[in-house]
Design goal:
The chain is of the alpha/beta class. Helices cover 29% and strands 18% of the residues. β12, α14 and β13 form a beta-alpha-beta unit.
Length: 690
């Protein structure tokens, strides 16, 4: 058709896969979404969320006007105002707060609504740095415990090439349901099974889809994975199954590690993890002798208060077993190079203009607003984030948003999110299909261009337009004068000393994904950028942070062992899992997703349900001292007794799991500890839902 065109673009969401997309446009409207077969990774296939993009983009609840609060915060009373008035108001408030309290009285709360370069960090950082700096976030809701721990061990957090898994003979999925959250890895895994007869192993309190495909399945107690890794090393070292050449020439601290793991014989690890002793020994022997062996670790594995040391233990296990830096081996974890070019492009972010450099852990954002520590926060600017829903301890975040300490809050989002409902001003921004960006997945090695597919929908503006208009009002408009494609070209930044994309241009990316110049097998050169130049099983750098230099095991801050009195009141451990039907809180109201996933379901083992008089389909209350939610129970033997599982991201009205989670920081990396969470479940009397 004359008015039909196909645009190559990419999904920038907070996901391993970063699907390559072909979008068909007719008469200015996007009418078809399909996978781009030109991608070596996603190979023309999309996940359910990607297949349902069109009704999400054209959702009837898309915001079409800036909205100014008229009633009390959270009361739901709004006034439609013009963009001119809205941007003038933001300028007036930000300028006033800066003059009265300093620019670091404004907290810039960014999130992972998009994971590519310009709109994840560069443009907002550029704006606030020009403004004199704002209070920024540090740590992570998701992955910084793992990234930091691996970096302390290897020198940098580099994930193994996902394509190299085809050469593996033994693959351990440790806390990762790849069939749900990383589906494009499955063809490579199947190839490993067909090519090498690879053995699949799953370690997870939930019997997941990948567990059903595995030859070995282990169900440890939540938060005890670090003890399991130490127990495996105990067997490997005691039986002389470690790689003595690698240990001698490429590690430091082996003698100290050897002494530590002596404290974790299989019998003790059995009592900690609840796993059979024979299973621990068998897993250790197989992992050390069936080579090459690869460990794939998921995000949830670090969502315990001991998550950093858990990752240190697993990283050490990979190293001493001789599986580091070999084809088919390695540690499968999101690579820190996913930050390229976002975090490394300091010139484009104008970091040198940030005068204040005040930061607060993202996990503690609500606490900082309520207490005024480390510095009073008077303004809140939320972009690509939904902290009321996604930050731990939702109740505390609600109190912070409503607090009189906060004099002004503004949210940029295409939808009225749980956070937007508590703001003073809401600005309707665009989806990724209405703007251009560039980036690399945090899992695969291919850079992609997220091309603009359609014009911004009525009433919405791109983030570049919003920041450009604000910059104009602040007097630094020239710093935002580039077009989106020009900014994308600058973001690629081929001038870095360690550039991995000097061969990439925006024009070339329009033809399809381009692989960054990353090694096929990381650490094969045995060059580790640690102070010692070796794998640091014992890390002296951790001592200065008050952290044990060895990968010790400590009980989670909430557990039957560490807090027995609390466990008497709240005897079940909660996993707030990721769902295949929504990216965090973004998709649950998508009409297509609601057809297949209409309500949040709490998975509970039949034994635990029977003890509480709960049947499948009953309406139940899940609660602890932090809050409670009402959801429908689903009895299933696919969950470990003593554990319940609820998908995260549902709205406050539907059953937000973060009403229950605590704002504990992990031991390393200042990460969220969502899974360190004890709850009780009770049946709602007379309110059964069948």
């Amino acid at each position: 058709m004359k008015n039909t065109r196909v645009v190559r673009t990419a999904c920038p969401r907070d996901c391993f896969d970063a699907c390559s997309i072909l979008a068909t446009v007719e008469k200015g409207k996007m009418v078809k979404i399909e996978g781009d077969a030109a991608s070596p990774i996603t190979r023309g296939h999309l996940c359910p969320k990607g297949e349902a993009y069109i009704p999400w983009v054209y959702h009837p609840e898309r915001l079409t006007h800036p909205l100014k609060r008229t009633g009390a915060r959270g009361e739901g009373k709004w006034e439609k105002i013009s963009w001119e008035e809205a941007l003038d108001l933001v300028t007036e408030k930000l300028r006033g707060l800066k003059e009265k309290y300093g620019s670091d009285s404004i907290l810039y709360h960014w999130g992972t609504g998009t994971h590519f370069s310009l709109y994840y960090g560069i443009l907002p950082f550029r704006f606030f740095n020009l403004m004199g700096g704002a209070m920024n976030l540090r740590g992570s809701l998701c992955a910084n415990a793992g990234h930091s721990a691996v970096a302390f061990t290897y020198g940098e957090s580099l994930g193994h090439d996902p394509e190299d898994i085809v050469n593996s003979k033994y693959i351990v999925f440790w806390g990762k349901n790849v069939t749900s959250t990383n589906i494009h890895h499955m063809p490579f895994i199947y190839e490993a099974v067909e090519k090498n007869g690879a053995t699949l192993v799953t370690i997870d309190p939930r019997f997941t889809e990948i567990a059903a495909k595995s030859a070995i399945y282990l169900q440890p107690r939540i938060g005890t994975d670090g003890a399991l890794a130490l127990g495996m090393m105990n067997v490997i070292i005691r039986e002389g199954l470690y790689d003595s050449e690698f240990v001698k020439n490429h590690t430091v601290g082996f003698d100290q590690l050897k002494k530590l793991v002596k404290e974790y014989p299989p019998e003790r690890v059995m009592s900690i993890t609840t796993l059979p002793k024979e299973s621990i020994i068998g897993l250790a022997r197989d992992y050390a002798t069936i080579k090459p062996a690869r460990i794939e670790v998921g995000m949830g594995l670090q969502h315990n208060s001991n998550g950093g040391q858990t990752f240190r233990a697993i990283a050490s296990l990979v190293a001493i077993s001789g599986n580091l830096g070999i084809s088919g081996g390695g540690l499968g974890f999101p690579t820190s190079r996913f930050t390229y070019p976002r975090a490394h492009n300091l010139e484009l972010k104008l970091t040198q203009m940030d005068k204040n450099k005040s930061t607060v852990p993202v996990v503690k954002a609500a606490e900082a607003i309520l207490t005024g520590k480390p510095k009073p926060i008077k303004g809140l600017f939320v972009w690509a984030a939904n902290p009321v829903n996604q930050n731990p301890d939702t109740g505390k975040m609600i109190r912070a948003m409503k607090s009189s300490n906060l004099e002004f809050s503004v949210v940029l989002d295409p939808f009225m999110t749980d956070t937007a409902r508590l703001a003073d001003l809401v600005l309707p921004s665009c989806t990724s299909f209405e703007q251009t960006d560039v980036g690399i997945s945090y899992w695969q090695y291919y850079m992609q261009l997220q091309q603009k597919v359609i014009e911004p929908l009525e009433g919405s503006k791109t983030d570049l337009e919003i920041f450009r208009e604000l910059a104009k009002r602040f007097g630094f408009e020239e710093y935002f004068s580039h077009s989106e494609e020009e900014f994308a070209e600058l973001a690629i930044n081929r001038k870095l000393d360690r550039s991995i994309v000097e061969h990439v241009t925006v024009q070339k990316l329009k033809e399809g994904p381009i692989r960054a110049k990353m090694p096929n097998v990381v650490w094969s050169d045995r060059k580790f950028p640690t102070p010692s130049g070796k794998v640091e099983l014992y890390s002296e750098r951790l001592i200065s942070l008050g952290v044990n230099p060895l990968p010790i095991y400590e009980e989670p801050l909430e557990s039957h062992v560490r807090t027995p009195k609390l466990a008497e009141k709240y005897p079940l451990s909660l996993i707030s899992r990721h769902s295949r039907f929504s990216m965090h809180s973004m998709d649950y109201k998508n009409p297509l997703m609601k057809k297949v996933n209409p309500k949040p379901l709490l998975d509970i083992h039949p034994r635990d349900a029977e003890e509480r008089g709960i049947s499948n389909g009953d309406l139940v209350t899940v609660e602890n001292d932090r809050g409670k939610v009402s959801v429908i129970a689903r009895t299933t033997r696919a969950i470990k007794p003593g554990v319940v599982s609820l998908p995260q991201g549902w709205s406050l009205q539907d059953g937000c799991s973060n009403f229950l989670t605590a704002d504990y920081l992990t031991d390393i990396g200042e990460n969220a500890s969502y899974f360190t969470c004890l709850v009780q479940v009770t049946k709602r009397k007379g309110e059964d839902v069948k």
